[in-house]
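Quick question: what would this complex look like in 3D?
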Amino acid sequence: MGALAAGIARETLAAEKYFPVKADQSLFETINRVKDPANKTPLEKSHGPVITAPKTVKAGEPFAVEVSVGEVVHSMGPAHWIEFIELNIGNEPAARVDFQPRGYASPKATFTVVLTKESAPSGKVTLIAHQRCNLHGYWEGSLDVTVT
Amino acid sequence: MGALAAGIARETLAAEKYFPVKADQSLFETINRVKDPANKTPLEKSHGPVITAPKTVKAGEPFAVEVSVGEVVHSMGPAHWIEFIELNIGNEPAARVDFQPRGYASPKATFTVVLTKESAPSGKVTLIAHQRCNLHGYWEGSLDVTVT
Amino acid sequence: MGALAAGIARETLAAEKYFPVKADQSLFETINRVKDPANKTPLEKSHGPVITAPKTVKAGEPFAVEVSVGEVVHSMGPAHWIEFIELNIGNEPAARVDFQPRGYASPKATFTVVLTKESAPSGKVTLIAHQRCNLHGYWEGSLDVTVT
Amino acid sequence: MGALAAGIARETLAAEKYFPVKADQSLFETINRVKDPANKTPLEKSHGPVITAPKTVKAGEPFAVEVSVGEVVHSMGPAHWIEFIELNIGNEPAARVDFQPRGYASPKATFTVVLTKESAPSGKVTLIAHQRCNLHGYWEGSLDVTVT
């Protein structure tokens, strides 16, 4: 089976990688997502990006989009830190915040987003946030917004 | 006089640069700042970063820092746009937001900042925001915060 | 089976996302890699990051790491472009180049890397390059380097 | 005199800023440039971006642009490091490399640049490189290229 075979291939690849720091390599092999929002694991609670935005917005009018890593904000320090938060409007990049390991800024930020009718041909867009943790890999959170 | 001579030298250098787009080269020769906050020019109103933060904060406790380019938020489009907003704690980089010329995000963002006693040896730090406009160069805004 | 179920779940999620531009959503659901380097598809040829670096390097001595997206360098333009190339030393971020959709720079860059003995506890490290294409998602290429 | 008065105003502003680390604040008040390329100071030697590129290039054909901070490559470490190298085609941003304070990558990189006739309306463009050092501020190097 395609997906199964690919899963096995990925684990093999992961096993062959050399990291400077001991980390769970499988977290670096894919884009991680919270599996069950009603029952988050501790790792998902601290790493899954949480997007807060209005359910419905007006085309051409700016609105605030807060992205937090995670529902408990991730700590920051040279040994374990969040490198960036990336905000995409579906497939299109919108903005990205880069953080410093020293930790003057915590991984929570608010963007000012403006959507046009053209950016939501179906009447909806999916806000997609990514973050990267040096020990726990890539994570994604998403939220649909209706554009009127 | 040193400063005067340097001023002349800078203008000479500026005159010798070749830009793809017609722009006021002197705005690219230095870090621009609002000269008189009580009497901003239209260019200063749309380009000077405006920082909003508490006057006094507690060491170790996160607080919000909003940075807006400028007091009227700058428009975004492929021909004229804001590339980034950079937030520094005095000399130390804290975070930076990169924007896209397509303009899904407007150049206004809120960071979550945490200051320690060590980051404010004098009891104060200066928050320094930079932005870069493709037609109007580098701009700086700053705000002092007391850390208790 | 876990991997198979996860594959199905991912496709369902993908189907529910709203993108401004028509794109193959499955490419945005995971980190894409070249499946068979000896038989690359056209998409893999133009999107898989290709890393060129020495097989063996000396600790403490700088060496060049070229990353190209892909073996035929990807074109750049506002409608279809490469947002960034990210270079990691295993799990640790090393450097990232951000590009502009206007395309003054092509998605090929050379970094100057220095590895210490501590960065290669096993004697090897994996250089991992990521890129993001606005129409074809996240891609990874990797290369092992021996550190003596 | 305008330039002289501005010089004095800038020094006053600088004196009023609060930095976490003891640093020469005047280096953060402007964009620093090498004053006399034939007689660089030690600070200029280690901080002035050095651009290496062909004198003449053909429109539409990619060429390599190396940027090094500085002629002796700047060291990297959490206490003193180079945050980024930014490459502009005159007033237009082309690409930027972000570095990590841990120092897996040194501040020297090669970009692949493509210039069109439109990007050089006068037949020449100025490549402008910026870098930021957490202790020694913003620096610029530039180089003119003829486009045929």
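Answer marked as accepted. Chain B is about 15% helix and 40% strand.
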